[in-house]
Design brief:
heterodimer; A: 475 residues; alpha+beta; Beta-lactamase; six-stranded mixed sheet; 18 helices; 22 strands; B: 441 residues; mainly alpha; three-stranded antiparallel sheet; 73% helix
Chain lengths: 475, 441
């Protein structure tokens, strides 16, 4: 009997020891875990700053209810995956998480009023964040994706400003908590921010990168002649064209215009692995694009195996190189990365650092922080960019992307159609306009379609670019 | 000081502590003390004073610690429930009254627990029937089939079955202990009692398994099996039963982890709650965060962050299985460890009663009840602190739940009866002895 009591004493001592571990030794560790959302309720007593569109309209507003401030969304659903959620239950994501210190007034340097509030121990008010996102363009991008799965990214190639970032399927941020169980389990992943987190086979849209490397290293010129027999045999395998087409004699420009795989496969092997991969790295592949978002919300593009990014030095045989030059093999890219490729060509070979924050406005109305566009990478020589620009204009004028053409505005672009092997395609379009003086660059990807990039993605790009170029002002 | 006066002193002490906690929560919530709050407090004090008076009349020599401990735990439970959702505290208060009524009825009808031994098969059958009825008619809540809806109430019969099974086992094992401890045959070199005597015990094992498979209730199955093993050991002093019993349950548990999806999920969450922090692991992680947030000294009654701004609890089921997370958050490590010591004090008194009891049945009954109480406490506190896999049982007297509080008040009544008889036989007045004899054990 006393033995059984001793056992119970041991069990109770174990309970107290474990409690001591949790409540004293590891208390701070538990508090610092990102899964711990207990601090959010306290921050909900702070008047959270608004998130504004480039036109000044309120994307995420603030509403007071019994002592706590809640988010409301007066403009409806505007890029919810990028803006992110601010939930007392599920925490924060996206810009809401990234700019939390500013939005809750905890950041330093938020104006005199904020400083005085802190000095007096008063609860500071949050600062507002004005984004480069243009709601007029964003809404059209979202409409174009309605009922589809995919993403559209629009950037200003000269500054890197993010003009639109649409991800479909989407959700209504106003009742996220009620829908959480469904949204988080939905296999179509509505919570995923496809523009920065979606990894897709880039297909022929990657030929812009291959072409850039080929031209830059002098391995080819726009007029280099090739002969296509429909099949390019290499290293015991073969590369064929989409739809089994045979093109015969073609120049490199024509190969780009009609997206001839065999020619690009040959260019790939002219370059060999090292120069091809180096060409991709110059556009930002193999590193995380510096769009400031929480860890994991922007992913790098490059060759992946089993969900992991391979190092640039990873082995490739000549057949691998041939297919990679056509954007296949193990290559995966985010829509943001492909928009940066288009932007690099549009901006004379210089890739700008992507950003979404136009300015931070302190509660007293002062602008305390303003966007400073910065160059990120030099992808090619200016001359190469100019040649690629012309080739991409051809693609839109007489090639695979005629559906992207706009009345009175010269568009440049490249399509991509990646066959997934289950009868569906990934349809791509990347491009920019106006070709002579690019104001916008774009990447469109559509999942689960039976159509090609030229059919399924190019028309959407045309509609979105047309809207963007008609805006009174762009960042 | 007589036992009853000592009890009164402790009750007053428990009352003082409870009042402070309650007033602190009430004032925090409503910013004033009004008549309603005082009436609530007075009703609570009235219930325990009534039970004290009943003891003075019918159980004069009963243990003086158990009732004040019960009062303290119930008061802390009620305070936290009130703090989480005031309307539930009213219901819980009513259940406390029902439990007090059942306590008094038990004392008045049974008078002497020795009588229970005569009806052990009937009581055992009732316990079994309660479980079978639950399996057949039960409703599934949170993946476990534990509840019966009847007359507008949700009843958890396993809480009562627990008591019935302890009474049965105490009687049965006391009767057969010699036969069980001196086996007349060996199986594979292991001493093995005649199947005739082992039969009922195998039934117990099958019953635990049935609870696992049909009720999907790992917690109660674990509790029943542990009570059974502890009682076997205490009756026979043979470690072989413990080894065999633990082994058999471990095998059954391991199979259940693979076969019963609900049990498998609980086990997976225990191993790694971080994997699906916003999904299946959410509740356990919120519990750990809430506990960790309490720190050494706690946030203070009514001051912890236990409710979202929309007044839903930060931990799902905070008022029932997870009430200890609320206690730890507001009372801190010191308070939480203190409460665990109070539970341990209760168990100690229970085992002490068993040790001093003059006969085998009383010993096993008291020890069985104390084991049940202590293990249930361990299973739930260990579960919500991730010491062991989480299984849904209530924290005695503290958790919200009518079946739990009423059944545990009957448990207290039974322990008090055993200790009263023991103390009278070992040193009561002649009058008390005569009274006891009249009641007829």
């Amino acid at each position: 009997m006393s033995r059984v009591f001793i056992v119970t004493v041991v069990l109770f001592v174990a309970l107290i020891a474990n409690l001591t571990w949790i409540m004293a030794v590891r208390a701070q560790w538990f508090q610092d875990r990102p899964e711990n959302k207990r601090g959010i309720a306290e921050e909900m007593k702070i008047k959270r700053g608004e998130i504004l569109g480039y036109d000044g309209s309120v994307i995420a507003g603030t509403q007071r209810k019994s002592g706590y401030y809640y988010r409301d969304y007066p403009s409806g659903t505007i890029a919810p995956q990028l803006i992110g959620y601010d939930s007392v239950t599920y925490g924060r994501s996206g810009i809401e998480s990234q700019l939390n210190d500013e939005l809750t007034g905890q950041s330093t340097d938020l104006g005199v009023q904020n400083w005085v509030d802190k000095l007096l121990g008063r609860r500071p008010q949050g600062a507002s964040a004005k984004l480069t996102l243009v709601p007029g363009v964003q809404k059209v991008a979202q409409q174009e994706l309605q009922g589809k799965r995919g993403a559209i990214v629009v950037l200003d190639p000269k500054t890197g400003a993010l003009i639109a970032s649409a991800s479909a399927p989407t959700y209504d941020p106003a009742n996220l908590e009620a829908q959480w169980a469904r949204l988080s389990k939905d296999t179509s992943a509505p919570l995923l921010n496809r523009p920065t987190q979606g990894l897709y086979v880039p297909g022929s849209s990657f030929k812009v990168v291959t072409g850039s490397a080929g031209l830059d290293t002098g391995k080819v010129t726009p007029d280099t002649p090739f002969v296509d027999t429909g099949t390019y045999v290499v290293f015991g395998g073969k590369v064929t064209n989409y739809g089994g087409e045979v093109y015969g004699a073609n120049t490199f420009t024509e190969a780009m215009t009609f997206s001839i795989n065999t020619t690009f496969a040959k260019v790939g092997n002219l370059l060999a692995k090292k120069r091809l991969i180096a060409g991709a790295q110059k556009y930002g592949f193999y590193q995380t694009p510096p769009l400031p978002l929480p860890a994991g919300e922007v992913v790098p593009s490059g060759r992946y195996r089993k969900g992991k990014l391979l190092p640039p030095t990873a082995f490739m045989n000549p057949l691998d190189v041939a297919w990679a030059a056509c954007g296949q093999e193990n290559l995966l890219a985010t829509p943001l990365q492909m928009a940066l490729v288009a932007g690099g060509v549009a901006n004379g070979g210089r890739v700008m650092k992507p950003y979404y924050l136009q300015e931070i406005i302190a509660p007293d109305g002062h602008v305390v922080q303003k966007a400073q566009p910065e160059q990120w990478l030099v992808a090619t020589k200016a001359a190469t960019a100019s040649q690629l620009n012309t080739m991409m204009q051809n693609v839109v004028n007489v090639g695979t992307a005629t559906n992207a053409a706009l009345q009175g505005i010269q568009v440049a672009g490249k399509t991509g159609t990646a066959e997934k092997g289950d009868g569906t395609n990934l349809a791509w379009f990347i491009g920019f306009a106006p070709a002579q003086d690019p104001q916008v660059c774009i990447a469109v990807v559509i999942e689960n379609t039976t159509a090609t990039g030229g059919e399924a993605a190019a028309p959407l790009a045309a509609a979105v670019m047309k809207t963007a170029l008609a805006q009174p002002s762009l960042p | 000081m007589s036992r009853r006066n000592l009890e009164l002193v402790f009750l007053v002490l428990a009352g003082a502590v409870s009042t402070m906690a309650y007033v602190s929560v009430y004032a925090g919530r409503f910013r004033e003390i009004n008549r309603v709050s005082i009436i609530y407090g007075l009703v609570f004090v009235g219930i325990f004073l009534l039970l004290h008076v009943v003891e003075r009349i019918f159980l004069p020599q009963a243990d003086p610690f158990l009732l004040p401990i019960t009062a303290l735990l119930a008061a802390i439970g009620l305070t936290e429930i009130f703090r989480i959702k005031p309307s539930l505290a009213l219901t819980q208060g009513q259940w406390l009254m029902v439990g007090a009524g059942l306590f008094i009825i038990t004392v008045l009808i049974v008078r002497d627990h020795m009588k229970l031994d005569h009806y052990r098969y009937l009581i055992g059958a009732v316990g079994l029937a309660l479980l079978i009825v639950t399996i057949v008619l039960g409703t599934t809540i949170n993946g476990s089939k534990l509840w019966i809806h009847a007359f507008g109430f949700s009843i958890q019969p396993s809480e009562f079955a627990k008591l019935a099974i302890v009474v049965f086992l105490a009687g049965y094992l006391d009767d057969k202990k010699v036969l069980l401890s001196v086996p007349d045959r060996h199986v594979l070199g292991v001493p093995f009692p005649a199947p005739k005597y082992l039969g009922p015990l195998l039934i117990m094992w099958v019953l635990s398994l049935a609870m696992l498979v049909f009720m999907k209730d790992f917690g109660m199955a674990l509790l029943f099996m542990s009570i059974f093993i502890a009682l076997m050991y205490m009756a026979t002093a043979r470690i072989v039963y413990v080894v065999t019993g633990v082994g058999m349950f471990a095998i059954a548990g391991a199979i259940a982890v693979y076969v019963v999806p609900h049990v498998h999920e609980r086990f997976a969450i225990w191993l790694d709650p971080w994997k699906d922090a916003l999904g299946s692991g959410y509740q356990l992680l919120q519990s750990l965060f809430t506990i960790a947030d309490g720190g050494i000294f706690g946030a203070g009654f009514g001051r912890g962050y236990l409710l979202f701004p929309n007044h839903t609890p930060v931990v799902p089921e905070l008022q029932t299985d997870f009430i200890f997370a609320a206690v730890a958050n507001e009372m801190g490590l010191i308070g939480a460890a203190g409460i665990i010591l109070v539970f341990m004090l209760f168990a100690w008194r229970g085992f002490r009663i068993a040790v001093y009891a003059p006969d085998g049945f009383s010993k096993l009954l008291a020890a069985g009840l104390a084991t049940a109480f202590a293990l249930q406490t361990f299973i739930i506190i260990g579960g919500i602190t991730r010491l062991i896999p989480l299984t849904g049982v209530t924290l005695p007297f503290v958790s919200y739940g009518g079946s739990s509080v009423t059944a545990n008040l009957v448990l207290v009544a039974l322990l008090l009866m055993v200790s009263n008889r023991t103390n009278i036989i070992r040193g009561g007045s002649d009058l008390e002895r005569r009274k006891l004899a009249e009641m007829g054990g």
